[in-house]
Amino acid sequence: MKRKTFCIITGVLTFGAMLPAEIASVEEAVAIIQKIAPEGAGSTEAAASWQSLVKLNEEAIVPLLKSMDHSGPVAKNWIRSAVEVIFSRITKESPAKLPLADIEAFLHDQKHPSQARKLAFDLIASVDAAKATELKPKFLNDPSPELRLGAVEVLMGEGQALIDQGKTAEATTVLQSALNSARDPAQIKEIAKQLKEKLNQTLDLPTHFGFLMQWQMAGPFDNTGRSGFNTVFGPEKAPSIDLNATFPGKVMDVKWRPYSTTDDYGMVDFNQPYNPLKEVTGYAYTTFESASDQEAELRLGCKNAWKIWWNGAFVFGRDEYHRGMRIDQYRLPIQLKKGSNTILVKVCQDEQEKDWTKEWQFQIRVCDSSGTAILSTDRKPTR
Question: Residues 32-51: pLDDT tens digits?
Fold first, then answer.
């Protein structure tokens, strides 16, 4: 039988004779999947295309991985499952035909999306655990958070083994390296715990994460009946922030007041300067000095209703309360401009009285898309 071939042309897949008879072209099938809307429109057509794709042979695996370069989150999930089905079938039927070398080459090409590269790693790991173990440490400083996670995990294991052997100096070196490369909040917390509690190390976690620690606060303003989220109070009205301004508050005039936090995870707590209050709104304002023009992310954790403005422009907000809080709960893309940038955060507290509803706080950091902190050039020492 004549071997069927394919090639990539400007990001579009062309397979020719290897296609099942029921689809005209693989590029057409992928394009249909790529058009599926987040709310599900087009899923019927996508399902038919997916059924055609999963009948392809091993030659389709890497091109389908590459098609994720130009796919949105929903399409990526569909393509991912198609790749997994094909890979699983070939593994059972003809494992020698698996294009593992090509999949590994794709994995090492950092131009491809993080999710697609992690999928490539998982495919290799599913059939060659030893190879996966060999590859993991190579991703310690990789831009892919998913791949970096595994590499940091290896160092954490090495550090724990050294602690168990009583080799504290060596353990400190290894875990410090793990901390420097870690971007996952859960991993960072665990590494920090080991360094502090078992190795007596002093850490500056706010700087590691890039949490913003120095603020000006204004409040309390009203939030009776949860009306504050859409009410434009004084700090929102002016085209620029005047720290000497006075505003009508909920019960009296309010002014900006300085606030700083030393919390390891950058918690900004309105209850500290204003006491625990309910049905209120507060604002926090700070500046950020950037060394250059660059793309960045604001990463926010907050269990209250909130809005954020960056350089005076509204970024995003959520009008909901007490749905939990975690580091990097929300990721908001921004553009840093060289020099001074401004951040205004609005946080509303509702009427609920249970203990777990009394927190009126947020944490926010500036980082790149991998979670690596971007620090203001005028950042003050944490303590």
Answer: 888 876 766 667 888 888 99
Establish whether the linkage from the previous residue to 220 is cis, with ω within 30° of 0: yes
Dump the DSSP string for 181-235: H---HHHHHHHHHIIIIIT-----HHHHHTB--EEEEEEEEE-GGG-GGG---HH
In angstroms, rounded to a whole number, what is the distance separating the alpha carbons of residues 228 and 118? 43
- Judge contact between 359 and 305, C-beta under 8 A: no
Length of the chain: 383
* 140 contacts: CB under 8 Å, gap ≥ 6: 148, 151, 152, 155, 177, 181
Residue 296: how many CA atoms within 13 Å on its side-chain side? 25
User: Which is more confident, 309 or 43?
Assistant: 309
- Please report, for residues 26, 85, 179, the alpha-carbon distance to residue 41 in angstroms, rounded to integers and kept in the order given: 21, 23, 43
